[in-house]
Amino acid sequence: MRLPLLPSVVVLTATLVFAMVVAVGIGSVNVPIADTWHILTGGTGGDPIQDQIIWQYRLPRVLLAALAGAGLSAAGVVLQALAGNPLADPQVLGVSSGASVGAVLVITLGTGAAGGLGVSSAAFVGAMGAAVLVFVLGQQRGRLTPTRLVLAGVAVGYVLLAVTSYIQLQATPNELGAVMFWMLGSVAGAQWDQLGPLAALVACCGLFITLYGRRLNALVTGEESATALGLNVRRARVGLLAASSLLVGAVIAVAGGIGFVGLMIPHVVRLCFGTDHRRVVPVSALVGAAYLVLVDLLSRTVDAPNELPLGILTAVFGAPFFLWLLRRDRSVTAS
Amino acid sequence: MKLVVDEVAVTLESTPVLRGVSVEVERGAIVGLVGPNGSGKSTLLRTVYRSLRPERGAVRLGGTDVWAMSARESALRTAAVLQDNTIPAGMTVAEVVELGRTPHQGVERAPVAEAMRRTGTLALAGRPFGALSGGERQRVLLAKALAQSPLLLVLDEPTNHLDIRARFELLELVRELGVTTLAVLHDLDLAVRSCDSLVVLHEGRVAAAGPPLDALTPGVLSDVFGVVGEVAAHPDGVVRVTYAARPLATGLVLS
């Protein structure tokens, strides 16, 4: 079963735009969809409070959800290809554990603990530190082997988790709540000044990975086979690993640890559109963006006025869907 | 294009695997690389398709050292059909063949279609690779190698796991392609039938080389392969290997 690419991309893009407009309009103050569209397209003359709600709170949050979904999904495609393992996701490589250490450090001990960095910056530094560590440990005599990479990622992840847990033990109940909320992911605190750099990064890394699509196709057939197809396997792996770590680190730094998106979306897209990475990468980004926009909308409407962390909903939807996928499609589990 | 492997030596995990091996494949010829398990056949192939750099010696294709080329430059000249391929489940035959165009700029349809036509795999184009029979898979992998537009084909036990008809078909197909070929073959009878000459590897050295009748003497069969037999041209003109009634040269060794 394969869906036609072009019509599907048109439909998915329309879905993303529609979902974003709807998500911008819905919240503690509902703005009708026509008014939302009017305000978003630069119209004025309406209610200035509605203007402010949409431009200051809703739009940055919806954009962040879309960017996070796109970034995590694209990175998930790469990490599954690099690890040669359908269960690989942004959390396997220890990057999110590194981000947690940075974020939890600042939340509990204040910015002084991380040299004056804010939560996002500290999380990003932690993510990159973990990525470099996993990268160094994942090498064997100058070779970067998928198995070692995954094992190093898991090991580093556990050590960093221990560090995070230790810091949490020292925290006050108030701080613990903030830590939990951060670790489960949220786009509630989206700010315009973070969106620019994140959007640039997601666009650059996404483009880079898409341009590497053909090489990814060769890479998944095995190291020897990829070499015989003219690939500099080491250089390709390093470049792709760097791009995906950067993507994951930047997204988690701003939106916290949102799980399951990077694992699930690539599988869904491969199931519908085949295995060609030149298609899988951009389509996964598109689907991931729409998915997370809708999950965020649900997270703030299902139990309004309370907000649920995104990680809870992505797991609640993701896990059963994933199990269903595994049962109905052999190709996900067949190696 | 003529391939010259010149005194190549390789050590893996501090074990010498190749101890100065020289092989020549004339343009358009099919040379079979035979030898018992562990004799260094696949390792020699790896130095040719530029996956393993030899410690000593050189591999020259058309006079140019393949290790002086980039991986991509080498892949524009040499294509390999390997034993271990992890083709993702769900990948179609056409997509597998298209992988052969990886070293080339842009994706042209023509070489892909031509490679599939020559290997008789056009009818399989839309099918998932995982659903094919062993013989069909090998033909598709050969098509992928052909799509690379190679001057040299390197085949690592291409007939492994194939039934007898599929074996003959595959080697017949390789003959028809007319591309310079170096192939590791386990089936000696198949090797003497289909190769212009043979190189016998034994413990990292060339034990014998030349046309099948000259290379596989009863002495080589017994010393290298441990079997009693002979290679002879039969009245129908076909060269065959026949094994003795009790073919084990030193009796069955059970340890």
The CATH homologous superfamily of chain B is termed: P-loop containing nucleotide triphosphate hydrolases
Overall tally of domains of chain B: 1
Low-pLDDT stretches of chain A are none
The structure class of chain A reads: mainly alpha
How do the strands line up in the largest sheet of chain A? 1-2
- CATH topology-level name of chain B: Rossmann fold
Helix content of chain A: over 70%
Would you tell me the overall average pLDDT of chain A? 88
Q: Encode the helix/strand succession of chain A as letters.
A: HHHHHEEHHHHHHHHHH
State the helix count of chain A.
15
Question: How many helical elements of chain B?
Answer: 9
Beta fraction of chain B = 25-35%
Biggest sheet architecture of chain B: 6 strands, mixed
- Rounded to the nearest angstrom, the distance between the terminal CA atoms of chain A is 19 Å
Structural write-up:
- The complex is a heterodimer of chains A (335) and B (255).
- The two termini of chain A are 19 Å apart.
- In chain A, helix 12 (261-273) packs across helix 13 (277-301).
- Chain A has helices spanning 5-25, 33-40, 48-83, 95-109, 119-137, 146-169, 173-184, 192-211, 213-219, 223-228, 233-255, 261-273, 277-301, 310-328, 330-333; strands at 139-140, 143-144.
- Chain A has a two-stranded antiparallel sheet.
- Chain A has 15 helices and 2 strands.
- The model of chain A has no long low-confidence stretch (mean pLDDT 88).
- By secondary structure, chain A is mainly alpha-helical.
- By secondary structure, chain B is α/β, with parallel strands linked by helices.
- In chain B, 29% of the residues lie in helices and 30% in strands.
- Chain B has helices spanning 41-48, 71-75, 93-98, 109-118, 134-147, 164-177, 188-194, 212-215, 218-224, and strands at residues 3-12, 15-25, 30-34, 56-61, 64-65, 78-81, 152-156, 180-184, 197-202, 205-210, 227-233, 239-248.
- In chain B, the strands form 3 sheets. A 6-stranded mixed sheet of chain B has the order 6-7-8-3-9-10, with helices on both faces.
- The A-B interface holds A 84, 214-215, 217-218, 220-222, 224-225, 227-232, 270-271, 274-276, 330-332, 334-335 and B 46, 49-51, 70-76, 78-80, 82, 84-92, 95, 99-100, 102-103, 107, 128, 130, 148, 154.
